[in-house]
Specification:
This protein has 7 helices and 17 strands. By secondary structure, the chain is α+β, with helices and mostly antiparallel strands. Strands 1, 2, 3, 4, 5, 6, 7 and 17 form an 8-stranded antiparallel β-sheet that branches. Strands 8-9-10-11-14-15 form a 6-stranded mixed β-barrel. It binds pyridoxal-5'-phosphate (PLP).
């Protein structure tokens, strides 16, 4: 196995760089999962009648492996990703991947591609588990067979020059999810409909769109594919999970961390009008951890937060969470999962 991937770590962005190995497992509907194996990274063959290609029967996850300051390779709360992956599979009529199999697959792919993990503080190995209905099916029904695949790509730090504020616009035309739909799971079909609104927002100079609830069009739900928070009088507010919001692991970690620090956190409805009167606002997810929000525009109204400076609480939470993730600060919640790099690989 190559010692070093010959990568210029400082030129990495959040994009796809091929690595050496991927994990692939298969399952017939109604049967247990068969143990998967590691394969050279490359193209998969797929039936044109696959459920995932015709009806979007698929889910994904997004995780990161970091090299900590102590030299360990660590995952952040991978059991939470495993459980969310199981809930998503169930929602889309797919056989859930057992939690231990999910973690084992992620560990094997990270270990096999360990030469692609950036040095501490210079990025991460982004991990993408996917589950697809790959068996052929013509009627709208669950595929007869499934593929669970895990691949990785090295990514640079999300904010190259350090944290910076983003400008957002509230979408007054489009919604991301409706009650009873699939907004609460990482179903692949949830994402393509957001691409056009997001692209239009970018053309107007905004980083992303904010989606409101599909019923009253008043409550903040999410920022593209990130969860929303705002701070008013030192109290932290985030939209409650109603089924239309993706339960982010970063979101949950920020809630726990803020409470541990003694802040009051309320999970309830967050009106757009309230958010536009808040002191600070930010959004969060695995990719960027925390993105401070500099402004929100709705129609002809614009709210600028703190003159586009990063809010003190936003900064504090970002610093604490990233310090825990890189083992600079004590892992008081036992969130880190050390990856054994010498694990046996099931290579074919
Ligand atoms: C993945 C995702 C998030 C963030 O979840 P994390 O577990 O924090 O990465 C938020 N919203 C949507 C729609 C997502 O797909």
């Amino acid at each position: 196995m190559p010692e070093n991937a010959n990568i210029d770590w400082d030129s990495l962005t959040f994009s796809m760089t091929k690595t050496d190995f991927m994990y692939v497992a298969e399952c017939q509907l109604g049967q247990p999962w068969q143990v998967g194996n590691m394969q050279p990274y490359g193209k998969l063959e797929i039936d044109p009648a696959a459920g995932v290609l015709n009806y979007g029967q698929g889910i994904f996850e997004g995780m990161k492996a970091h090299r900590s300051v102590e030299g360990n390779v660590v995952l952040f709360r991978p059991d939470e990703n495993a459980r969310r992956f199981q809930r998503g599979a169930a929602r889309l009529g797919m056989p859930p991947v057992p939690e231990s199999m999910f973690i084992d697959a992620v560990e094997q792919v990270v270990a096999a591609n360990s030469h692609f993990i950036p040095p501490s503080g210079r990025g991460a190995l982004y991990i993408r588990p996917v589950l697809w209905g790959t068996g052929p099916i013509m009627g709208v029904a669950p595929s007869p067979s499934y593929t669970f695949c895990v691949f990785v790509t090295p990514v640079g730090p999300y904010f190259k020059g350090g944290l910076s504020c983003i400008d957002l616009v509230i979408s007054d035309e489009y919604h991301r999810a409706a009650p009873g739909g699939s907004g609460g799971v990482k179903a692949i079909g949830n994402y393509a409909p957001g691409m056009m609104p997001s692209k239009n927002a970018k053309k107007r100079g905004f980083a992303e769109v904010i989606y409101l609830d599909a019923i009253n069009h008043e409550l903040i739900e999410e920022v593209g594919a990130a969860n929303f928070f705002c701070v008013k009088n030192k109290k932290i507010h985030t939209p409650e999970l109603t089924g239309t919001i993706l339960p982010g692991i970063t979101r949950d970690s920020i809630i726990q961390l803020a409470k541990h620090k003694g802040y009051e956190v309320v999970e309830e409805k967050v009106h757009a009008t309230f958010a536009m009167e808040a002191d600070e606002a930010f959004c969060c997810g695995t990719a960027a951890v925390i993105s401070p929000i500099g402004s929100i525009t709705q129609g002809d109204k614009e709210k600028v937060y703190l003159n586009r400076e990063i809010g003190p609480l936003t900064r504090e939470l970002y610093d604490s969470l990233t310090a825990i993730q890189s083992q600079k600060e004590e892992d008081v919640f036992s969130w880190l999962h050390k990856v054994p790099l010498e694990i046996p690989l099931n290579l074919v």
